[in-house]
Amino acid sequence: MEFSENTALLTEYRRRAAELVGKMTLDEKVSQLVNHSPAIERLGIPAYDWWNEALHGIGRAGVATVFPQAIGLAATFDEDLMEKIADTISTEGRAKYNMQSRFEDRDIYKGLTFWSPNINIFRDPRWGRGQETLGEDPYLTSRLGVRFVMGLQGHDARYMKLAACAKHFAVHSGPEGIRHSFDAKADPQDMRETYLPAFKALVQEAKVEAVMGAYNRTNGEPCCGSKTLLKDILRDEWGFEGHVVSDCWAIKDFHTGHMVTANEIESISLAMNNGCDINCGDLFVLMKKAIEEGRVSEERLDEALTNLYTTRMKLGVFDGKGENPYDALDYTVVDTVENQHFNREVAEKCMVLLKNNGLLPLDKSKIRSIGIVGPNTNSRKALVGNYEGTASRYFTISEGIQEYVGEDIRVFTSEGCHMFKQGISGLSQGHDRLSEVKGVCEVSDVVVVCLGLDADLEGEEGDAGNEFGSGDKPNLKLPGEQEEVLKIAVASGKPVILALLSGSALAVPYADEHADAIMQCWYPGAQGGRAFARLLFGDVNPEGKLPITFYRTSEELPEFTDYSMKGRTYRYMQNEALYPFGYGLSYTDYRITDVKASSDTLGEEGIKVCAKVKNNGKMDGVDTIQVYVKIDEEGTPNPQLKGIAKVALKAGEEKEVLVSLKKEAFGLFDEQGKFQYATGKAIVYVGDQQPDTRSEKLTGKKVAALTINL
């Protein structure tokens, strides 16, 4: 029996929590409503800060394994791997907590409540925080998010390992600069079809312990005080039993940005009465006044605190030392050699080969010199993205290649240009490294061009330090002189490999036409350079698939502030992508044959799809089987991802793969947000790519199609 299924134990923890809350004075109760909750010594309650981060490793609290950024993890399309990553993170998180609390360190980023994962839909590539998400597809986000939460919270029958948090509820994906006053308007169909499914899955399947409200309003209501979201949907419809936390200082926005309340007391009353249990920030310390004025009942206050203390009971922090199996995790399990090796393997699985004219993998015996140029050549910042921890050692692209080739191959490097400014030296006339790029290319047999972005250019409002404003991108172009560096490399006549490090899609049509190979590396974590080198030389085979669409230009996108899904993401776009969702090349050739369905008519149990997958190439690899469903009716979305299977194949090996599709995979939401099944037919597509013409053009392969009667 898993912890989340132990109803009697949950009831007992809730009883104990309520009993403890009942012993508190009103002032003591109010003190516990903010993330930095002070100790109540007379009741034996230590100080506790609820704010901790685990987006792609334990963040902001010293040394930990720094995995690839979340968007890179999504490119694995691997549910089992996602849980293993989260399990590694939670082991380190418990061990760090055990050590820190032993020394009475109760500061921020030192607790067991981790505000991860971010399961917002990456609906627009300009959004700076899209790097934190699991991509643009609600199905993929749901499946990976569920397993990530399971890995964080663990499978002990009595105790949670860590408490995970689904954020930001809901309909939140930029613009960053106006998030404190913005009203994201989404119709019922888009709400149910796109913005809510992942949250529902994490609540009902993964039993996620916490949900965080978003900064913005959704359809007129501030998310951290939304009756529709927090009461009607989250609690009443989905049966959520955990606690709700506000985003940090978001409740202040009610009266300073959204202008839906007149002052602090009205704001905290709106949030508390509609289901927000704890305030990241400090306004809830005014809750005593709200109670005295009759705006909030003490009964509701007790309910909020019981929700919070139930979480702490589940984590075992009020039980005797040694009763909790996670108490045994000591600091030696943090940043182990095994975790470093695993991190490198994860980075290898994340990277997506977008183009290869046959140049890759490189043959080390045939190369005397390699040039590595571009602003991300030796950038640690481009390894980690945001919400990062601190690695004990980093391997940039340059460091990874140099370590791999040793003294066998001469390596020449150049920063090439600033990430986004004209020139590197402040006293130069600009373009001050371009001649060096020409020189490096001239003496190199092959050139690796490292371009893209870093967390200074894209990220959270107030976090990114770029001149574009608030962490969002103004467009999808390579900033500054980066494309000029690429053009110099191409003009040299040497073979050119483009390594893109970014947390989002970039428009690179010139590279698509002129580079010999392109690898999307994301922000690949502390071991990213090692992973890239092993992929470059064919020690491992690329297996990543794009969890987002790479568009040709931002001009084809709807307005950034338009939250209608029309024209957005692979499910609703009409234009041809530069690189489609689900796309990614390999060094080997996979063939999918004998595709069959268990029935040609949809039943209550759904259908099962089976296929044979063969590795026809000379290199071992892992293929990603993708199953898409298209309801064959006017006005329905493009084929949507509804099933995934990873299959490892030796060279020449063939395996049979089975993917189950639930009946719900064949339903759609109508304009009123009501779920219903269509009549007529559906087309089920089975392959290792999306069933669009651009994917066919890029891979030279078509996917199999099955007709199912509805």
Summarize the structure.
With 710 residues, the protein is of the alpha/beta class. The chain folds into three domains: 3-327, TIM Barrel (Alpha-Beta Barrel), CATH 3.20.20; 341-548, Rossmann fold; 590-709, Sandwich (Immunoglobulin-like). The longest helix has 24 residues, at 79-102.
Explain what the structure shows.
With 710 residues, the protein is an alpha/beta fold. It folds into three domains: 3-327, Alpha-Beta Barrel (TIM Barrel), CATH 3.20.20.300; 341-548, Rossmann fold; 590-709, Sandwich (Immunoglobulin-like), CATH 2.60.40.10. The chain contains 21 helices and 23 strands. The strands form seven sheets. A six-stranded mixed β-sheet has the order 9-14-13-12-10-11, with helices on both faces. Strands 18-17-22-23 form a four-stranded antiparallel β-sheet, with no helix packed on it. Strands 3-5-8 form a three-stranded parallel β-sheet. The model has no long low-confidence stretch (mean pLDDT 96).
